[in-house]
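User: Could you check the structure of this?
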Amino acid sequence: MESDSYPHHMLREIYEEPRAASDTLNNILKQRAEISSFLSRGRYDMIYTTGSGTSYHAGLAGQYAIGTLAKRTVTSIPASEFRRWLPMLTRNFLLLAFSQSGESADILDAVRAALERDASVLAITNTPQSSLSKMAGYVLLTRAGNELAVTATKTFISQLAAVYLLSLELGVKSSEVERWRTWLLEVSDLIGKTIKLNVKLTEELAGKHKDKSFFFILGSGPNYVVALEGALKLKEACNVFAEGFASREFLHGPVQLVNERTPIVLIAPSNESRGESLGLIKDLGRFKAPLIAVSDEEGEIGRACESLLPVPKGAPEVFSPILNVVPLQLLAYYLSVSRGLNPDRPEKLSKVVR
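Assistant: Sure, the predicted structure tokens are below.
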């Protein structure tokens, strides 16, 4: 399917991510007073996040960011499970409901269940007139624009941008707040740079591994979310088995499945977990698996792996998924095309699950 000068909507939408992030952040920044007013109305014992698929992963990223920066207790529950888990949830809670369309049956049921308990609901959605927007007490509207590919990319980036900025409004008391906010407001340029750095590399990598049927993606801390989301994109767009794991958790059983035909993508930022990443690379190298690193370090980590997908340096670890997921989106796109598939229209999936 032709999309402007792009062969597919998915690729065009990845290229639209810098603008989607910038527009989302600038829009939410204007609402800081309103957000603060809404949040001050309740005394919340807990914050829960909920969503489905990619939106659930955005909620997990929010759990990490809010827990780390605002020191609030946050738990993520899939939307399809939320009502079942409701009896054990604390009484006074804020629900952050993530949905691109705002029309998924599961997210709407989760919100209804929360409202039945007199919970406050803040929606993060791309659709202003959606059912979710009408049900929520407050809406953070992402500005991703229309997303035509079933495989969500720019809406995920926008959801991350929204919840990251929200995490700075939830009572953060730190001298670094302005530095984090400034970094977020400049992240659109870094997303664009990440795309440019990885287009050719991921296209070549996809051609090399187009015959592979099993992929593992590993990430730690906030980048566990990237492992889950990257694996989901490979499943959706490429029709392969792909699984995301917390990096060292992979050694507790799943490593048994590794061989020379199971590419492993390791999210390996050059921060305090660098030594852990290098140790893991050494362990996995013994099994002859193709190792691909997503990293801001081209030195020791890059040399230790078969391939390196680079990202710009200097990202705060808590916000690093917004850059680290981009090479995996591109890899999923090019791997889908190299396998003769249409990444815009996975045959068994639809944009909205009703």
